[in-house]
Each structure stands twice: as structure tokens, then as C-alpha cells.
């Protein structure tokens, strides 16, 4: 019997009761009505009044909720958070990301395991197309390093000269005129002078004079405080510097020191091409090491003082050269057309490769959706087909229809993504041209601009509240700044002789762990009160469901009584 028949039967029963319960006047003065005489028993009437009974039960009902039930309800919210999705999954994907980056698999195209998985997982034919996300900063950094390596490979430093691989004439990186001027200014017309690196021994302006007094090792030589080899190998990678700029920086007045032959090239004690860290190691151990890191002998007190002066002079010279390098980079970016063309060409090539990656992912997403649906629902069952051939045809047509329908939108979004990626890669190239502390400042500016290019879709999303938008922007900023951790970890790994590919893999994993912990802490802090609001909404939803259930139970009980 359906609900309509039940309703009709109930109405017929009520009509029958109405007829049979018609109140007739009770005849008076009839012997059989003597039981109606006397006082009314109010207690009996009250007991038979069921409306009052129901009212009392409702009024006296216990509506309090125990603390244990409240805690159980709150715990049910947290039980919905899968630790696999929030901790293990990002770390595992970051391991795949690092492997792909280390072996240059999809890096140029901006295809990472994390991006591929997240976009394919969230894809649906019914869901409107999302904008392609911008490439993460660490992958941009690695792509830019490839351009830097290519620029660096054009020439190599060899015995004071920059030797080109295209058979061009080698450039002498030592500027004789500047070195002679420094030599002259140091002596100021005198025959002897104090050593530029200090110590108790004087240096002689003339080698003949020094030999004549049997102090040939104290003849004067012009030394580059920071070795010419180190500076040249570092700066020839810089895409915003010309080779003439590099030569000018190497021979800066602050980097030229008049010292003795002994301090410069002397047996065992000579500085040669040792770096600041090499000299600091000798100071800390109070001994001299050879190129193989083997101890030669201990330093004397005077030699130790000279070594400390060398390190101090190198630090001062490096600061001055960093300042000069940054100034030349700024000038060339503003006025040197060759530098501008080089930077734009590399940024355009990188953006084009990333656009190719967007197309690849656009094609992969429906394919992944169909393969997953085949495994979960079955090839025929998933599309309600009767045969394998018809199911395959339906799935292929569905993919083709989606691709053709979204092609125009994807092309428009692709042009917008190309512009954003071009700007971001151009800024990444510019950042890597600067040196010292100023480089970190420029990188922060670059990351800020990148964040601004990504907040548009967040701010224009009408389905999100202001609190949700604020939380999304905070997490976007936090994830963008992890680039400093990525580069720092990779640099540290390289300093302890852990090179590629392991440095990239380890850096990717550790950065993912750091990012995951950062997001976890931001969720715990709940600065915008989203978790509180979500819990209140969830409680309201649960109470509404409970009320609907109680309502259904009440009507079921009434229907049963009828």
C-alpha cells in the first residue's frame, strides 16, 4: 500500500469516528443516569487529559548535553583529517619531484609529480576549468641555473686569461695599468714600505734593491686579495655582466694589495689562489695545508697575524666588489641592449616550455580520469555501455568533446599564463645576476610580485568569504617564501660535497617537510578563525539533521497510532 492509499484510509477512518462519536443530549431524571449525580472527579479528568501529559514530558525533558558527547563531536571533526593526505603524501610526492628535477625530467616544462597528481585528482568533466598554476619558485630557480650554466660554458679561466670556446681572442683579466698605479701609490716615492697584509717585514719597491740586500723574497708583487680565478669563475656566469665589467671588478682598487713575493707565491706560505675559507681553516688549525688538504707545518705567530689580515682584507674587498657588481648589473639592465636581449630570450624560452607543459597536462587530465574510472567503475559499467567497443567509443568521444570544448578557453588562459611565466622567469634571471645581501632583497621583491600575480583568482572568487581569502593568501605567501629554504639547503649540501642529483632530491624533500609543517602550524594557529567557523557550521548541520530525524520519527509514531 502506498502513501496515497494510507492517507485515504486514514481519512475514511476519521470520518467514521466522527459519525459514531456524535454527542447526544443526556436525558435528565432517568433512573439509569443516577451515576452522573454528585461531584466531578477532577483527578480522573486530569489523568485523561493527554495534552497536558505530553506538555509535561516536553517541559521536563532533559535537553542538556554531556561534556563527553561534546568532546566526541569535536573529535569527529578532526577524525576526517587524513594524515596520509597532509603529511605522508606531500613528502612522497616531493621525493618524486626531486628525482624529476635532478634528472631533468619535465623540469623545463614545469611538470612536477605534485602538480600532475593534484590537477589530475581534482579534474572532473563537470567542474569548470581552473587556471593553470604558476611554476613553483624552486623549479624556476633550477631552470634558470641551466641558462646560467650555458652562459658560463662560453669561456673558461686559464692562467689569468679568459679563454673563449669560439676561437675568439683570449682576454687578459689582469689590468697592468691599474696594478702599476696601485704599486706606485703604495710606495709614494719611497724605496720600502709596510706589507699590504701587515707583519713586521718591509717590502722593497725594486726587486733589484731587495736582491741586493739579500731579501729577494721581500720584493713587491701586486696580489688580488680575492684571487682572480675565484672572481672570474663566479662572475663569468653572470648574464648581466660583460667580460670587460668582470675585468674591471677584478682589478678594483680595493682588491689590489702590494705584498711580498713570500706572502703571494712563497714556498709553503704563499697565498696563491686560496679562498677566504681556506685561509680561515689554516687560522683555526694554526697550520698550513697543501692543495690536497694535507698539513705542511705550523704557522708562526707573525704568519698567523698575516693570515688574519689576509682574511680581513678579503672580506672588505668582497663587500666593495659586490657593491660594484650590483651597480654594473643595474646599469646594464637599463642600458645594455645585448644584456636585455639575452635576459628576454632566456625568459621567453622558459615561458614557452612551461606553456608546452600546460598543454601536456591539459591532455593528460581527461585521460587520467577515464583510466581511473575504468579501474573503479569498470570499462562498460562506468558509461552504461553493453560492449567493450561501445564503451571505448563513448570514452574517446567524451575526451575529444572536452578537449575541443575547452580548447578556446585553454588557449586564452595559455596566453595569460605565458605572460605571467615570462615575467616571473625574467625576474628570476635578474635576481640571479645580483650578489651579496642585495640579492636576497631582490629575491623577496620578486617573490612578492609573483604572489601579486597569483592573488587575482583568489580575490575574485565570489564563493569564498574574506576570512577564507585571507587564509589562502597567507598560505600562498608562506609557500612562496620556502624558496629561501630550498636554495639554502641545496647550497649547504653542496658545501659539504653532496652534489647533484642528491642535493636536489634531498633539498626537495626537506623543503616539502618544512612547507607541510608550516601549513600545519598555520592551521593550528587559525589566525582567521576558519576552523571555529567550520565547527560551528558543522554543529549547525548536525543539529539540523537531528531535528529532521526527530521530526520523521514523530510522524512515524503518529502514523503508527492511526
TrEMBL record:
Superkingdom, taxonomy of origin: Bacteria
Keyword terms of this UniProt record: Membrane, Transmembrane, Transmembrane helix
Membrane-traversing stretches: 422-442, 472-489, 501-522
Species of the source: Photobacterium piscicola
Name of the protein in its database record: Uncharacterized protein
Annotated spans, Disordered: 179-199
